[in-house]
């Protein structure tokens, strides 16, 4: 019998290190005991208790809405920034623009959250908006730092796009806007989907920035989970984490499936054109 190589062993060890804690958490979500470290038999009572907890359900709904709108706006702004950085190669201030776009990637979240809090406070004093911090301020804050991640992802894809295809469309009389939507946009669609999923995950997971810019009427899921864990880990948190892991896994699989299906169709169409 052939012994596994060192690379295979390291791969297995890395996967266990990453996913074994998640598997243990999912296993203990079916624990009937109130103590998360003491096994007392299988039970689904904590899933029932979870769906009866209105505070957690409200926080989940709030986080999902903020993440959806933040990811959508981040894709729009990040795509525009990436297009400017890659297509307009010579203009005054390009280095400053690139630095400002990528600054949130390396900026500590505490600094970002504090600076946004001061911005909202001064805006409320000067123009009266926002009167109260809540979902809107969290949405603006999440869009701010998520746009940087989307810009990096989309810019890397735009640099790989063959410019001759766009130039051919322009030479044939296609307006620039039509060329972008019919030629460029389909080619960078996988990057847009990846950027949207990344921004959605970052917004859904954020705790520090949301803690600075949120008000008493808007609590995201990480804020509720963190406050409850400080008073003691509840088995309902294990059940909630299990559902989140399953939902993320399903969404990732569906995204991979449709992207692979689209890529296979594109390859088949190119093969048919070459054969014809």
Quick summary:
Helix content is 78%, strand content 0%. It is mainly alpha-helical.
Keywords, separated by commas or semicolons:
MetI-like fold, globular, 276 residues, mainly alpha
Would you kindly provide a written description of the structure presented here, covering whatever features stand out?
This protein is mainly alpha-helical. The chain has a domain of 159 residues: MetI-like fold. Helices cover 78% and strands 0% of the residues. Helix 4 packs across helix 6 and helix 6 packs antiparallel against helix 9. The longest helix is centred in the last third of the chain and has 41 residues. The N and C termini lie far apart (49 Å). The mean pLDDT is 87. Keywords: Cell membrane, Membrane, Transmembrane, Transmembrane helix, Transport. It is found in: Cell membrane. Its main location: membrane. InterPro entries: Bact_Polyamine_Transport, MetI-like, MetI-like_sf. This is Putrescine ABC transporter permease PotI.
């Amino acid at each position: 019998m052939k012994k596994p190589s060192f690379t295979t062993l390291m791969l297995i060890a890395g996967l266990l290190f990453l996913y074994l804690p998640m598997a243990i958490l999912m296993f203990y979500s079916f624990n009937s005991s109130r103590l998360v470290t003491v096994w007392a038999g299988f039970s689904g009572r904590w899933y029932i208790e979870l769906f009866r907890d209105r505070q957690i359900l409200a926080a989940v709904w709030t986080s999902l809405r903020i993440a959806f709108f933040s990811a959508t706006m981040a894709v729009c702004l990040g795509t525009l920034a990436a297009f400017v950085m890659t297509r307009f190669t010579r203009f005054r201030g390009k280095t400053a623009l690139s630095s400002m776009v990528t600054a949130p990637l390396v900026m500590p979240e505490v600094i970002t959250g504090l600076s946004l809090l001061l911005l909202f406070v001064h805006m409320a004093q000067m123009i009266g908006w926002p009167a109260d911090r809540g979902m809107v301020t969290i949405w603006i804050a999440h869009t701010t730092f998520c746009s940087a991640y989307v810009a990096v992802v989309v810019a890397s894809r735009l640099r790989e796009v063959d410019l001759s295809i766009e130039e051919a469309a322009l030479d044939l009389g296609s307006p620039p806007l039509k060329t972008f939507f019919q030629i460029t946009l389909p080619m960078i669609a996988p990057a847009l989907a990846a950027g949207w999923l990344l921004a959605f995950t970052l917004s859904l997971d954020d705790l520090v920035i949301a803690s600075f810019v949120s008000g008493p009427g808007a609590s995201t899921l990480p804020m509720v989970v963190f406050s409850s864990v400080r008073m003691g880990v509840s088995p309902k948190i294990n059940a909630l984490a299990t559902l989140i892991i399953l939902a993320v896994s399903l969404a990732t699989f569906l995204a991979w499936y449709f992207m692979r299906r689209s890529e296979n169709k594109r390859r088949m169409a190119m093969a048919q054109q070459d054969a014809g």
